[in-house]
Amino acid sequence: MPQKLWARLIKGPEVRFISHLDLLGTVEKALRRAQVPIAFSQGYNPQPKIAFAAALPVGMTSSGEYAEFILGEPWPLEYFREQVNRQLLPGLELEAVREVPGGYPALMAIVDLARYQMGLKLPAGIKKEHFSLAWEGFLSREEVKITRQTRKGVRNFNLIPYVYGYQIHCDSTDLITVTIDLKLGPRGSVRPGEVVETFWTVSGWEGRVVFLHREGLYIVRDDGIYSPLTIEFQHPG
Fold it and tell me: Which of 39, 97, 155, 182 is the most exposed place for a label (fewest CB within 10 A)?
């Protein structure tokens, strides 16, 4: 009987420049070396049933990537985690795994929020209070246009509807950490780097991004925000 698993994966600084496709290939090789009975799709070109909830931009670390695995036969969860971790590259780790009802929607179909941490170096003379006022004013606008180059050409869109919430933390005199929640959906999302670079442009400040880190991916429901590994399953219908 097939077994559906959801797993949380840590992507450390050692592997932050691995692309999404390379990450997928790396995990696939680890599963093969661990002799995991991964299921395959049907058709002329069968593919292993592995899917990440949302691609992580190159150069970014993460403490909460999520992947879905369909196994051809059941494996004990802790045994699965241990065997795969032995085959992963340094900097990659399956931190936790849970089993999911077979008829439940795919992980990428229900994850709809990404939480990021952005370390920002403020320009000389700009204090936290100045930054907070400017940031709040920036995100309280009805529209802030950003431009993105895509395969189909240049795309212009409003970033404001994608921002779910944020918090500002003061690390030192000129270093600010912003935690920002960005919505995910069928039409994509906005990247945290795009948000902060647009902010620098609008504010006229020449700040600098020190680090970008994805804290996790979440599922938003009426009663709160949940991790895929802790959410209570509802009937698929």
Answer: 155
Q: How many domains does the chain have?
A: 2
Q: Is 158 helix (H, G, I), strand (E, B) or coil?
A: strand
SS (H, E, C) 162-174: HEEEEEEEECCCC
- Residue 169 belongs to what domain range? 113-221
Structure tokens at 63: 């403490």
Q: Which pTM was predicted? A: 0.92
**Tens digits of residue pLDDT in 108-148:** 999 999 999 999 999 988 888 999 999 999 999 999 998 88
Cα–Cα dist 210/226, whole Å? 28
The whole-angstrom separation of Cα 192 and Cα 115 is: 9
**By the 8 A CB rule, do 49 and 6 touch?**
no
Query: Which residues of the chain register pLDDT less than 50?
Result: 237
pLDDT of residue 235: 57
Clarify whether residues 73 and 136 are in a common domain. Answer: no
Q: What pLDDT shows up at residue 152?
A: 79
Distance CA 172, CA 70 (A): 46
β-pairing, 175-183 vs 208-221, is unpaired
| Residue 186 DSSP code | T
State whether 65 and 130 are in the same domain. no
pLDDT by residue (tens digit) across 14-39?
A: 999 999 999 999 999 999 999 999 99
